[in-house]
Amino acid sequence: MSRLGTLAFRALVALTALFLLAPALVVVAMSFSETSYLSFPPQGLGLRQYRSLLTSDVWGVVTVRSLVVALPVALLAVGAATLLVVGLERTRLPYKNVLVAASTLPMLVPGVALAVAVYGLLASLRALDTYTGIILAHTVITLPLAVLILWPAIRAISRDLELAAMTLGAGRARAWWDTTVRLLGPAVAASMITVFLTSFDEAVLVSFISGPRTTTLPKAILDSVITGVDPTITAVAGLLILLTAVLMTAGEALLRRSGRR
Amino acid sequence: MTPEAAPTGAPHRPRLELDRVTKRYGTVTAVDDVSLSLAEGEFLTFLGQSGSGKTTVLKIIAGFERCDGGVVRIAGTDMSRKPPRDRDIGMVFQNYALFPHMSVAGNIAYGLRRRKWPAERRRARVREMLELVHLAQLGDRSPRELSGGQQQRVAVARALACEPQLLLMDEPLGALDRALRLDLEQEIRRIHRSTGCSVVYVTHDRDEALALSDRIAVFHDGRIVGLDQPARLYERPPTGYVARLLTDANLAALPDGTAIRGDVAEVVLAGRTVRVRSTAARTAGARLAVPRTSISLQPQHEDCLTVEARVDDVIFLGEHARVDLDTTALGCLIAHVPMHQTNNRIVGETLRIHIDPARCQVVI
């Protein structure tokens, strides 16, 4: 490629990145404004929004609720996905790829359509506005993510490693622990991070199935934008962006480590 | 446990005995009544094509598969129902199977840890094994930083670290390119000599088998169809299958009038009756194995059979040439002749070829 072409290409990449990041940057900039209303460009520069976030009794409660949902979802979805991929990889079942594809089906259904269906189901079970309902629904939609991360990871671990450990004096369980479990660990952690973030951040399903007792952070943000304009949400968003960036980077690093192996 | 079944096994006891071992998968018999024994320090190769049962027998010896019938004894102890952990074996895999999350030294020490060697002895043993495979400087490296040949040497060191009764090798050179294969072949010979370990080696490559083995067991359809020293198997293949696998011998239909008396066959060819060694009991289904190098384009000694042949093709292979021949007496034959005895101008000509009957054999 010519020098000019290279330059044009780099400019295009930079513009694309800017385009994608701009909304986040605007929100972060707004979160440092000193006004009591949403303002851009920010007026004054301070931590007013963050102070009001810390002193507010609403945002703390909904954040804890989101954690109460996202942590069990991470354990359930990744636990189920791990059992699924280990079972599929280490047995002689036919049609393995079909089963893997079937387990990712929830991802193909449009989110709103799934939400309507889950709403109907939970309503008939009288499980609307319950943590159990939200956790199970989130587990269903995040299971495909966990399977898609774990399936290639376990396929990359040779079964011979376990056999080698067994010839070297390890029992069956010990051999499994020392090889497959150890090597799958980073991918399990990475899929937990991805599932956690997805559930923590999920707004469509909870709009349908949560209620006053179970309003999570994304739902609360949505509500606050609809009902009035409280500039505190810019601080919430700023912190969310930071949390997501940190966790995603950690997840990527874990996956890269396991992929290299 | 009987007194003879002491775990250490007396030196005169075979390191490995297979007694009528059989394995079935559904209706398919993968291993059919295989018996053999391996002396201490012996290098035995299972040679066969894929699906011949050689790898299944290795898995049965290692304890990865259970046999449906028969007994596996290692150093005199019946191991048929024991897990791999208790069999006192070392194993080398085709794709190395090194633990990627451990260093080279960590890999070699793994078995020593599992067998509870104290840290001091463990370190000394790891150093000793690294020197044995000429990788003394690479103990701290990660396996993925090593070349394929180096990785396989680490795998050999790991398998031998605990001084197992038996070293099992499953196509250890299969993943390497040709030059590395020859190098590592030499390494395996040297390590076998210097440690005196008993080895069962699985391969489909006859050159490897011939170069490395004290004895070769040829597998075909789940059975052992030949078991002998390489030179004897090469010179006197017991069956046509072994002849073709080991030497690429021509297998020609027996001429009419051939009679078999004991271990000699009288073959009527080109108007003469010649006596040829025979391992076949009767002529039905038997064929005449004619090694490629037993055919010459120039007159040799007077015992040679002389037949007319048309030259279909001449292919240069380096030190010798492959000559494709069409004879009326024995059908199509392939000869390997020294380069200086031929050239490709003879293609299409009909000439007289000379076959040494002393190197031929009637086989079933």
Strand order of the biggest β-sheet of chain B:
6-7-8-3-9-10
Poorly predicted regions of chain B are: 1-10
How many helix segments of chain A? Answer: 11
Count of beta strands of chain B: 21
Tell me roughly what share of residues is in helical segments of chain B: 10-25%
Number of helices of chain B: 8
What shape does the CA trace of chain A take? globular
What structural category do the secondary elements of chain B indicate?
A: alpha+beta
Beta-strand residue percentage of chain A: under 5%
Counting DSSP E segments of at least 2 residues, the number of strands of chain A comes to 0
Describe the largest sheet of chain A: none
Ends apart, CA distance between termini of chain A:
34 Å
Q: Whole-number radius of gyration of chain B?
A: 24 Å
Return residue spans of chain A where pLDDT drops below 50 for at least 5 consecutive residues: none
Name the helix and strand elements of chain A from N-terminus to C-terminus, one letter apiece: HHHHHHHHHHH
Portion in beta strands of chain B: 25-35%
Assign an overall shape of chain B: elongated
User: Can you summarize the main beta sheet of chain B?
Assistant: 6 strands, mixed
Q: How do the helices and strands follow one another from N- to C-terminus of chain B?
A: EEEHEEEHHHEHEHEEHHEEEEEEEEEEE
